[in-house]
């Protein structure tokens, strides 16, 4: 009985211990919860309510381009677009959205690659993809001898062509859309489709935006050219939305607040003035919670379109000059001995301001598919390609002779050919008698220029004897002087990739004689225009420029805004020539075109605008697109050039014409003179409305 009582008495005790333990544990829990709530509660509450501000930029239209009379050359035209903004969606969510969107729009699948298809197949068939891995490979993976990347590549490689061919057209369309989704960056709108978006597609997507997270309909823009292909090679190009930033300039643009899928100027004027044309993007602040979900959007900065450029070009004149060059190039192509002729260039420039009024280049190229010749714009070639130009440079030779004291006004030389020992005789196209420098320019005497060069080099000439110069810097002297006119140096035009030309490397005395008649170094049409403008305006080398003004845009209005910056005329240097020297060269140039016996008189006689200038013919070696047909020895060809200005007394326009590889053999098509006369006639007709 006593033992039973003892056993019974332990039960309440144990129960009490259990209750006490539970009480203690609950007390500790309550105290802990209270401590957390009182001491750390505010911090945890902030964590739950934590937000993150992410500012993104939306693109704006580029600035417009106008000609000097404010006619639009390059515009922006609106077009419907469908975009996707990744707001932190998972891959599965984006695929579901892509499938829904694929039911509403058409999408070109040309950009879908084989690799895209394989990745897509694996995403759609994960179990089948896993089955392509052997047990041995899985063991290697478990032993860490194969990485995730290795396994993924094995799966990709083992997907068969037959499996890929099972994709339906609809699935490929979904893949193309999904590829656009995944090629963008978080919170940055990515173009899904902006070409040929129909009104029905735009409406369908707009009506279903609630079931298409991240998708939006908007207005995009593209460059429009009211003058079609006129001057297109100089205006340049803008990257397409799928191109984005050029890979070779990626870091440069990213450091300047660009996005990887932004469109930028990628060539010529669009590229050179990118910082001005690009505009200021709209800044949008996306406020997200800690899961990355956007809970609020705020407009921070309104977008502002790019600034507008007013060019120096007169587009009516440009079109007229283009037509002349095209017509005369095609006519020249029909002459005997001109089958290598394929291009021609013209530059018109204001000699006092440096304004480029027109810059025309045309090139005949053969279409690989049709085999037919096609005319292409090559205005770019006026400053990116150089050629031997011949006697057009003789004005610079005479003025160099004056400056060095080699000749003085009225110096006379006999035009008898020069014979250097062991070299062919060097002469003019005919014996021209005894000449002063004015007549030498008028009749284009080579021999007069040879004697001038010999004196600059401080050489002594005897018939059929070696010719040596005591002035070892003769080449530098002449080239530096030519550069002061713009020949053989950068003109400073506000466009990229200007070429200075080739300088002959040999310093044999005979080549110095070739240099002063334009048959050794090479020059561009733009250099010729700057050179003749320097002579025309009294000795000031003006920097040529194609942009006249920069203007602020006017938001919401189709008109020009206020002038932000006007490009003032810039004098690069003077040639330090006496007025008397310039007057004598002016006289020689005027006689070339206005007096019987002048090399351009037959083509310019009767012109009421009093032209002055200098012709040029240079024997050169063909190095064009058909060179491969001739191996190492292509045939010698003749380059034709012409520089001029008008009126001769008070010039208002300077002109340069260059027709490379104009003919080979004895035929002379005079394309330079035909183009030059028609261009100046057209300029003054358009300017004054008179018949010249």
UniProtKB/TrEMBL annotation:
<comment type="pathway">
    <text>Cell wall biogenesis; peptidoglycan biosynthesis.</text>
</comment>
<keyword id="KW-1133">Transmembrane helix</keyword>
<keyword id="KW-0812">Transmembrane</keyword>
<dbReference type="Pfam" id="PF00905">
    <property type="entry name" value="Transpeptidase"/>
</dbReference>
<feature type="domain" description="Penicillin-binding protein dimerisation">
    <location>
        <begin position="59"/>
        <end position="298"/>
    </location>
</feature>
<keyword id="KW-0961">Cell wall biogenesis/degradation</keyword>
<keyword id="KW-0133">Cell shape</keyword>
<dbReference type="InterPro" id="IPR005311">
    <property type="entry name" value="PBP_dimer"/>
</dbReference>
<dbReference type="InterPro" id="IPR012338">
    <property type="entry name" value="Beta-lactam/transpept-like"/>
</dbReference>
<dbReference type="InterPro" id="IPR050515">
    <property type="entry name" value="Beta-lactam/transpept"/>
</dbReference>
<feature type="transmembrane region" description="Helical">
    <location>
        <begin position="12"/>
        <end position="35"/>
    </location>
</feature>
<keyword id="KW-0472">Membrane</keyword>
<dbReference type="InterPro" id="IPR036138">
    <property type="entry name" value="PBP_dimer_sf"/>
</dbReference>
<feature type="domain" description="Penicillin-binding protein transpeptidase">
    <location>
        <begin position="345"/>
        <end position="680"/>
    </location>
</feature>
<dbReference type="Pfam" id="PF03717">
    <property type="entry name" value="PBP_dimer"/>
</dbReference>
<protein>
    <recommendedName>
        <fullName>serine-type D-Ala-D-Ala carboxypeptidase</fullName>
        <ecNumber>3.4.16.4</ecNumber>
    </recommendedName>
</protein>
<keyword id="KW-1003">Cell membrane</keyword>
<dbReference type="InterPro" id="IPR001460">
    <property type="entry name" value="PCN-bd_Tpept"/>
</dbReference>
<keyword id="KW-0573">Peptidoglycan synthesis</keyword>
<comment type="similarity">
    <text>Belongs to the transpeptidase family.</text>
</comment>
């Amino acid at each position: 009985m006593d033992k039973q009582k003892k056993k019974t008495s332990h039960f309440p005790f144990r129960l009490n211990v259990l209750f006490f333990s539970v009480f203690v544990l609950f007390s500790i829990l309550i105290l802990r919860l209270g401590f957390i709530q009182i001491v750390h509660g505010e911090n945890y509450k902030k964590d739950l309510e934590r937000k993150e501000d992410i500012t993104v930029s939306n693109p704006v239209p580029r600035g417009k381009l106008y000609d000097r009379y404010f006619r639009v050359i390059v515009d922006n035209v609106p077009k419907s677009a469908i975009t996707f903004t990744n707001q932190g969606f998972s891959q599965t969510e984006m695929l579901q959205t892509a499938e829904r969107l694929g039911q509403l729009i058409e999408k070109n699948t040309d950009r879908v690659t084989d690799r895209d298809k394989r990745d897509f197949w694996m995403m759609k068939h994960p179990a089948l993809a896993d089955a392509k891995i052997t047990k041995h490979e899985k063991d290697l993976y478990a032993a860490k001898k194969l990485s995730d990347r290795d396994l993924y590549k094995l799966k990709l490689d083992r997907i068969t062509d037959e499996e890929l061919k099972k994709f339906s057209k609809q699935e490929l369309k979904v893949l193309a859309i999904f590829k656009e989704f995944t090629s963008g960056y978080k919170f940055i709108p990515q173009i899904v489709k902006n070409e040929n978006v129909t009104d029905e597609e735009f409406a369908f997507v707009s009506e279903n935006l609630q079931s298409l997270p991240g998708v939006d309909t908007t207005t995009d823009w593209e460059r429009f050219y009211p003058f079609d292909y006129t001057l297109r090679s100089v205006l340049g190009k803008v990257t397409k939305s799928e191109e984005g930033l050029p890979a070779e300039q990626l870091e440069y643009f990213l450091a300047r607040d660009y996005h990887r899928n932004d469109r930028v100027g990628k060539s010529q004027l669009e590229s050179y003035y990118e910082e001005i044309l690009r505009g200021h993007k709209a800044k949008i602040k996306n406020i997200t919670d800690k899961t990355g979900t956007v809970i609020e959007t705020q407009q921070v900065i309104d977008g502002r379109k790019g600034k507008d450029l007013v060019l120096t070009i007169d587009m009516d004149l440009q079109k007229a000059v283009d037509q002349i060059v095209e017509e005369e190039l095609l006519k020249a192509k029909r002459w005997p001995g001109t089958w290598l002729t394929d291009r021609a260039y013209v530059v018109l420039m204001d000699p006092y301001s440096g304004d480029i009024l027109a810059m025309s280049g045309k090139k005949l190229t053969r279409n690989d598919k049709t085999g037919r010749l096609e005319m292409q714009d090559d205005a770019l070639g006026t400053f990116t390609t150089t050629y031997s130009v011949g006697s057009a440079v003789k004005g610079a030779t005479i003025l160099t002779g004056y400056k060095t004291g080699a000749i003085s006004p009225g110096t006379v030389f006999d035009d008898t050919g020069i014979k250097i020992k062991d070299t062919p005789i060097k002469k003019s196209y005919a014996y021209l008698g005894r000449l002063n420098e004015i007549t030498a320019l008028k009749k284009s005497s080579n021999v007069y220029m040879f004697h001038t060069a010999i004196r600059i080099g401080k050489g002594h000439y005897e018939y059929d004897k070696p010719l040596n110069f005591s002035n070892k810097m003769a080449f530098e002297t002449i080239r530096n002087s030519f550069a002061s006119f713009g020949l053989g140096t950068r003109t400073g035009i506000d466009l990229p990739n200007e070429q200075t030309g080739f300088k002959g490397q040999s310093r044999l005395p005979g080549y110095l004689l070739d240099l002063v008649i334009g048959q050794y170094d090479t020059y561009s049409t733009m250099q010729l225009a700057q050179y003749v403008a320097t002579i025309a305006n009294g000795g000031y080398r003006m920097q040529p420029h194609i942009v006249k003004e920069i203007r602020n845009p006017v938001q919401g209005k189709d008109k020009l805004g206020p002038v932000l910056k006007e490009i003032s005329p810039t004098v690069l240097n003077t040639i330090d020539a006496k007025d008397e020297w310039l007057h004598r060269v002016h006289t020689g140039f005027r006689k070339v075109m206005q007096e019987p016996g002048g090399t351009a008189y037959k083509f310019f006689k009767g012109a009421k605008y009093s032209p002055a200038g200098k012709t040029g013919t240079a024997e050169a070696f063909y190095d064009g697109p058909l060179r491969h047909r001739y191996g190492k020895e292509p045939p010698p060809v003749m380059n034709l050039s012409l520089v001029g200005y008008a009126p001769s007394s008070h010039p208002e326009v300077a002109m340069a014409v260059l027709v490379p590889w104009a003919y080979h053999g004895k035929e002379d098509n005079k394309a330079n003179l035909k183009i030059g006369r028609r261009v100046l006639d057209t300029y003054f007709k358009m300017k004054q409305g008179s018949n010249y």
